[in-house]
Amino acid sequence: MSLDGKIAIVTGGSRGVGKAMAMGLAKSGAVVVVAARTEIETPHLRGTIGMTVEEIRQAGGEALPVVCDVTDETGVGRMVSTVMDRFGRVDILVNNSGIAFPARTWEMPLKRWELVLRVNLTGAFLCARAVLPGMMERKAGSIINISSIQATQKGSVDTGLAYGVSKAALERFTVGLAAEVAPFGIAVNCLKPRGAVDTEGMRYLHASADKTRWDPPDMMIKACVFLAAQGAGGITGLVATDEEITERLKGRD
Ligand SMILES: NC(=O)c1ccc[n+]([C@@H]2O[C@H](COP(=O)([O-])OP(=O)(O)OC[C@H]3O[C@@H](n4cnc5c(N)ncnc54)[C@H](OP(=O)(O)O)[C@@H]3O)[C@@H](O)[C@H]2O)c1
Prior knowledge:
The protein is an alpha/beta fold. The chain is about 45% helix and about 15% strand.
Protein backbone atom coordinates (compact mmCIF):
# COMPACT_ATOMS: atom_id res chain seq x y z
CA MET A 1 0.00 0.00 0.00
CA SER A 2 1.55 3.30 -1.06
CA LEU A 3 1.58 6.42 1.10
CA ASP A 4 3.75 8.31 -1.38
CA GLY A 5 4.00 12.00 -0.57
CA LYS A 6 1.82 11.81 2.55
CA ILE A 7 2.94 13.72 5.63
CA ALA A 8 2.65 11.63 8.79
CA ILE A 9 3.23 12.54 12.44
CA VAL A 10 4.04 9.68 14.82
CA THR A 11 4.06 10.67 18.48
CA GLY A 12 6.32 8.60 20.70
CA GLY A 13 8.46 7.68 17.71
CA SER A 14 11.72 7.70 19.64
CA ARG A 15 11.52 3.97 20.43
CA GLY A 16 9.31 0.90 20.60
CA VAL A 17 6.06 0.55 18.72
CA GLY A 18 6.15 4.19 17.59
CA LYS A 19 9.58 3.78 16.06
CA ALA A 20 8.51 0.62 14.21
CA MET A 21 5.39 2.33 12.82
CA ALA A 22 7.41 5.42 11.85
CA MET A 23 9.84 3.19 9.93
CA GLY A 24 6.94 1.31 8.30
CA LEU A 25 5.11 4.46 7.24
CA ALA A 26 8.34 5.87 5.77
CA LYS A 27 8.99 2.62 3.90
CA SER A 28 5.52 2.98 2.35
CA GLY A 29 6.45 6.43 1.05
CA ALA A 30 5.26 8.82 3.77
CA VAL A 31 7.42 11.65 5.04
CA VAL A 32 7.46 10.97 8.78
CA VAL A 33 7.65 13.50 11.59
CA VAL A 34 9.03 11.76 14.64
CA ALA A 35 7.60 13.61 17.63
CA ALA A 36 8.65 12.82 21.20
CA ARG A 37 10.69 14.33 24.04
CA THR A 38 14.01 12.49 23.93
CA GLU A 39 16.85 14.12 22.04
CA ILE A 40 19.69 12.71 24.11
CA GLU A 41 19.73 9.03 24.93
CA THR A 42 19.61 7.98 28.58
CA PRO A 43 21.52 4.86 29.67
CA HIS A 44 18.40 3.06 30.95
CA LEU A 45 16.13 3.72 27.94
CA ARG A 46 17.40 3.44 24.37
CA GLY A 47 16.15 5.65 21.58
CA THR A 48 15.86 9.29 20.56
CA ILE A 49 13.87 11.11 17.90
CA GLY A 50 17.13 11.71 16.01
CA MET A 51 18.06 8.01 16.03
CA THR A 52 14.71 7.02 14.50
CA VAL A 53 15.03 9.71 11.85
CA GLU A 54 18.58 8.59 11.05
CA GLU A 55 17.43 4.97 10.60
CA ILE A 56 14.60 6.09 8.32
CA ARG A 57 17.01 8.14 6.22
CA GLN A 58 19.51 5.30 6.03
CA ALA A 59 16.72 3.07 4.74
CA GLY A 60 16.05 5.63 1.97
CA GLY A 61 13.07 7.38 3.58
CA GLU A 62 12.40 10.97 4.56
CA ALA A 63 11.85 12.07 8.15
CA LEU A 64 12.05 15.02 10.50
CA PRO A 65 12.62 14.96 14.26
CA VAL A 66 10.49 17.40 16.25
CA VAL A 67 10.68 17.65 20.02
CA CYS A 68 7.25 17.41 21.59
CA ASP A 69 5.76 16.64 24.96
CA VAL A 70 2.19 15.63 24.11
CA THR A 71 0.91 16.82 27.50
CA ASP A 72 1.98 20.38 26.75
CA GLU A 73 -0.70 22.24 24.81
CA THR A 74 1.69 24.96 23.66
CA GLY A 75 4.35 22.43 22.71
CA VAL A 76 1.89 20.39 20.64
CA GLY A 77 0.81 23.56 18.85
CA ARG A 78 4.45 24.42 18.18
CA MET A 79 5.16 20.92 16.84
CA VAL A 80 2.21 21.04 14.42
CA SER A 81 3.16 24.60 13.34
CA THR A 82 6.68 23.36 12.56
CA VAL A 83 5.22 20.60 10.39
CA MET A 84 2.81 22.99 8.65
CA ASP A 85 5.60 25.51 7.97
CA ARG A 86 7.83 22.79 6.54
CA PHE A 87 5.36 20.62 4.62
CA GLY A 88 2.12 22.62 4.43
CA ARG A 89 -0.13 19.87 5.75
CA VAL A 90 -0.57 16.80 7.91
CA ASP A 91 -2.20 13.77 6.26
CA ILE A 92 -1.70 11.16 8.97
CA LEU A 93 -1.47 11.42 12.76
CA VAL A 94 -0.51 8.38 14.82
CA ASN A 95 -1.19 9.04 18.51
CA ASN A 96 1.20 6.46 19.91
CA SER A 97 2.83 8.17 22.93
CA GLY A 98 1.98 6.15 25.99
CA ILE A 99 3.06 5.40 29.53
CA ALA A 100 2.01 3.11 32.35
CA PHE A 101 2.60 3.18 36.08
CA PRO A 102 2.26 -0.29 37.58
CA ALA A 103 0.81 0.32 41.03
CA ARG A 104 -2.29 -0.92 42.81
CA THR A 105 -4.97 1.75 43.06
CA TRP A 106 -4.52 2.23 46.81
CA GLU A 107 -0.81 2.85 46.28
CA MET A 108 -1.13 5.02 43.18
CA PRO A 109 0.09 8.59 43.67
CA LEU A 110 -2.36 11.17 42.24
CA LYS A 111 0.49 12.70 40.26
CA ARG A 112 1.11 9.36 38.45
CA TRP A 113 -2.60 8.69 37.85
CA GLU A 114 -2.99 12.11 36.27
CA LEU A 115 0.19 11.78 34.21
CA VAL A 116 -0.92 8.47 32.68
CA LEU A 117 -4.24 10.04 31.66
CA ARG A 118 -2.52 13.18 30.40
CA VAL A 119 -0.08 11.34 28.14
CA ASN A 120 -2.34 8.52 26.92
CA LEU A 121 -5.63 10.38 26.55
CA THR A 122 -5.23 14.15 26.74
CA GLY A 123 -2.09 13.98 24.59
CA ALA A 124 -4.06 12.26 21.83
CA PHE A 125 -6.81 14.86 22.14
CA LEU A 126 -4.32 17.75 21.96
CA CYS A 127 -2.53 16.34 18.90
CA ALA A 128 -5.80 15.53 17.11
CA ARG A 129 -7.20 18.98 17.89
CA ALA A 130 -4.07 20.62 16.52
CA VAL A 131 -4.07 18.78 13.17
CA LEU A 132 -7.84 18.72 12.57
CA PRO A 133 -8.38 22.26 11.22
CA GLY A 134 -5.94 21.58 8.35
CA MET A 135 -7.41 18.15 7.65
CA MET A 136 -10.96 19.57 7.71
CA GLU A 137 -10.00 22.30 5.29
CA ARG A 138 -8.57 19.75 2.87
CA LYS A 139 -11.39 17.27 3.58
CA ALA A 140 -8.92 14.42 4.06
CA GLY A 141 -6.87 12.79 6.77
CA SER A 142 -6.33 9.72 8.88
CA ILE A 143 -5.89 9.61 12.65
CA ILE A 144 -4.79 6.40 14.35
CA ASN A 145 -4.92 6.10 18.13
CA ILE A 146 -2.81 3.34 19.67
CA SER A 147 -4.70 1.49 22.36
CA SER A 148 -4.15 -1.74 24.26
CA ILE A 149 -6.08 -4.89 25.06
CA GLN A 150 -5.89 -3.57 28.63
CA ALA A 151 -8.74 -1.23 27.65
CA THR A 152 -11.18 -4.08 28.07
CA GLN A 153 -9.28 -6.79 29.94
CA LYS A 154 -10.05 -7.32 33.58
CA GLY A 155 -7.23 -6.85 36.05
CA SER A 156 -4.59 -4.19 36.33
CA VAL A 157 -1.52 -5.64 37.98
CA ASP A 158 1.03 -5.32 35.17
CA THR A 159 0.21 -1.83 33.99
CA GLY A 160 -1.76 -0.15 36.77
CA LEU A 161 -5.46 0.59 36.38
CA ALA A 162 -4.93 4.15 35.11
CA TYR A 163 -3.41 2.66 31.97
CA GLY A 164 -6.46 0.55 31.09
CA VAL A 165 -8.79 3.41 32.01
CA SER A 166 -6.89 5.79 29.73
CA LYS A 167 -6.98 3.31 26.85
CA ALA A 168 -10.72 2.61 27.32
CA ALA A 169 -11.29 6.36 27.15
CA LEU A 170 -9.03 6.62 24.09
CA GLU A 171 -11.20 4.02 22.34
CA ARG A 172 -14.35 6.00 23.21
CA PHE A 173 -12.59 9.14 21.95
CA THR A 174 -11.80 7.34 18.69
CA VAL A 175 -15.38 6.29 18.01
CA GLY A 176 -16.80 9.70 18.94
CA LEU A 177 -14.24 11.66 16.96
CA ALA A 178 -14.74 9.41 13.92
CA ALA A 179 -18.41 10.35 13.92
CA GLU A 180 -17.63 14.06 14.39
CA VAL A 181 -15.17 14.35 11.53
CA ALA A 182 -16.63 11.87 9.02
CA PRO A 183 -18.43 14.72 7.19
CA PHE A 184 -14.97 16.24 6.62
CA GLY A 185 -13.58 13.11 4.97
CA ILE A 186 -11.33 12.19 7.92
CA ALA A 187 -10.91 8.65 9.22
CA VAL A 188 -10.24 7.99 12.91
CA ASN A 189 -9.37 4.47 14.00
CA CYS A 190 -7.88 2.71 16.97
CA LEU A 191 -5.17 0.08 16.61
CA LYS A 192 -3.91 -2.10 19.43
CA PRO A 193 -1.31 -4.84 19.67
CA ARG A 194 -2.76 -8.35 20.11
CA GLY A 195 -0.69 -8.77 23.29
CA ALA A 196 2.59 -7.72 24.85
CA VAL A 197 5.18 -6.17 22.54
CA ASP A 198 8.90 -6.30 23.14
CA THR A 199 9.81 -2.63 23.45
CA GLU A 200 12.28 -0.58 25.44
CA GLY A 201 9.48 0.66 27.68
CA MET A 202 8.17 -2.85 28.37
CA ARG A 203 11.66 -4.12 29.18
CA TYR A 204 12.19 -1.20 31.53
CA LEU A 205 8.85 -1.70 33.32
CA HIS A 206 8.93 -5.49 33.44
CA ALA A 207 12.62 -6.30 33.66
CA SER A 208 12.13 -9.75 35.18
CA ALA A 209 9.13 -10.83 33.03
CA ASP A 210 9.22 -13.83 30.70
CA LYS A 211 9.69 -12.17 27.31
CA THR A 212 9.53 -15.29 25.18
CA ARG A 213 5.90 -14.66 24.15
CA TRP A 214 6.26 -10.95 23.48
CA ASP A 215 5.80 -9.91 19.86
CA PRO A 216 8.29 -7.73 17.96
CA PRO A 217 7.10 -4.12 17.39
CA ASP A 218 7.26 -4.62 13.60
CA MET A 219 4.08 -6.68 13.73
CA MET A 220 2.11 -3.41 14.02
CA ILE A 221 3.35 -2.00 10.70
CA LYS A 222 1.02 -3.65 8.22
CA ALA A 223 -2.15 -2.67 10.09
CA CYS A 224 -0.82 0.85 10.74
CA VAL A 225 -0.03 1.47 7.07
CA PHE A 226 -3.43 0.11 6.05
CA LEU A 227 -5.28 2.39 8.48
CA ALA A 228 -3.09 5.35 7.52
CA ALA A 229 -4.37 5.01 3.95
CA GLN A 230 -8.02 5.28 5.01
CA GLY A 231 -10.30 8.29 4.65
CA ALA A 232 -13.85 8.63 5.94
CA GLY A 233 -15.06 6.87 2.78
CA GLY A 234 -13.09 3.80 3.87
CA ILE A 235 -12.71 2.28 7.30
CA THR A 236 -13.37 4.63 10.19
CA GLY A 237 -14.49 4.32 13.82
CA LEU A 238 -12.83 0.91 14.03
CA VAL A 239 -11.18 -0.38 17.20
CA ALA A 240 -9.13 -3.46 16.35
CA THR A 241 -5.96 -5.38 17.08
CA ASP A 242 -3.16 -5.63 14.54
CA GLU A 243 -4.07 -9.30 14.18
CA GLU A 244 -7.71 -8.56 13.35
CA ILE A 245 -6.66 -6.09 10.68
CA THR A 246 -4.01 -8.31 9.09
CA GLU A 247 -6.61 -11.10 9.04
CA ARG A 248 -8.89 -8.79 7.02
CA LEU A 249 -6.02 -8.08 4.65
CA LYS A 250 -5.20 -11.71 3.90
CA GLY A 251 -5.32 -12.45 0.20
CA ARG A 252 -4.96 -8.77 -0.72
CA ASP A 253 -1.15 -8.85 -1.05
N1 LIG B 1 4.62 -2.63 24.38
C1 LIG B 1 3.43 -3.19 24.59
O1 LIG B 1 3.33 -4.35 25.04
C2 LIG B 1 2.16 -2.45 24.28
C3 LIG B 1 0.95 -3.15 24.34
C4 LIG B 1 -0.22 -2.46 24.08
C5 LIG B 1 -0.19 -1.13 23.73
N2 LIG B 1 1.00 -0.47 23.68
C6 LIG B 1 0.97 0.95 23.36
O2 LIG B 1 1.91 1.25 22.35
C7 LIG B 1 2.40 2.57 22.54
C8 LIG B 1 3.91 2.54 22.60
O3 LIG B 1 4.31 1.66 23.63
P1 LIG B 1 5.81 1.13 23.73
O4 LIG B 1 5.76 -0.17 24.40
O5 LIG B 1 6.48 1.30 22.44
O6 LIG B 1 6.38 2.17 24.80
P2 LIG B 1 7.86 2.74 25.02
O7 LIG B 1 8.89 1.84 24.48
O8 LIG B 1 7.90 3.09 26.47
O9 LIG B 1 7.79 4.08 24.19
C9 LIG B 1 6.87 5.07 24.58
C10 LIG B 1 6.96 6.25 23.68
O10 LIG B 1 6.07 7.25 24.18
C11 LIG B 1 6.76 8.48 24.23
N3 LIG B 1 6.27 9.35 25.30
C12 LIG B 1 6.11 9.09 26.61
N4 LIG B 1 5.69 10.20 27.25
C13 LIG B 1 5.59 11.18 26.30
C14 LIG B 1 5.22 12.55 26.33
N5 LIG B 1 4.85 13.16 27.47
N6 LIG B 1 5.24 13.24 25.17
C15 LIG B 1 5.61 12.65 24.02
N7 LIG B 1 5.95 11.36 23.92
C16 LIG B 1 5.96 10.63 25.06
C17 LIG B 1 8.22 8.10 24.48
O11 LIG B 1 9.06 9.10 23.95
P3 LIG B 1 9.96 10.10 24.81
O12 LIG B 1 10.27 9.42 26.10
O13 LIG B 1 11.12 10.33 23.93
O14 LIG B 1 9.11 11.31 24.98
C18 LIG B 1 8.35 6.83 23.64
O15 LIG B 1 8.71 7.11 22.32
C19 LIG B 1 1.77 3.09 23.83
O16 LIG B 1 0.64 3.85 23.54
C20 LIG B 1 1.36 1.81 24.54
O17 LIG B 1 0.30 2.01 25.42
C21 LIG B 1 2.18 -1.11 23.94
